Write the structure tokens for this entry.
Amino acid sequence: MADAPRLGAGAMILIDPPAVPAHGRMWSHLVSDTSYDELHEFAAAHGIPARGFERDHYDVPDQFYIRLVEAGAVPVSSRELVGRLVRAGLRRRKSES
């Protein structure tokens, strides 16, 4: 998807390493520390289906990881990803869904 838009100034999309096993593959989490709108726009532009969104993140199969980083998603640890969501006020726990 070479023609998909890249992130603009101030935008911050984060992705953690594919480390969660499920359905025969490994999964990453894709989040924004700015807004859900930014996250949904980035995900849609890069072929991540809306059904992958859960509360505050997209579950992303490992084969998307490199492409999303090349498109501007910033690789961070899982701990850093959750911390950034909390600090941005965008963390939604299961009990809040």
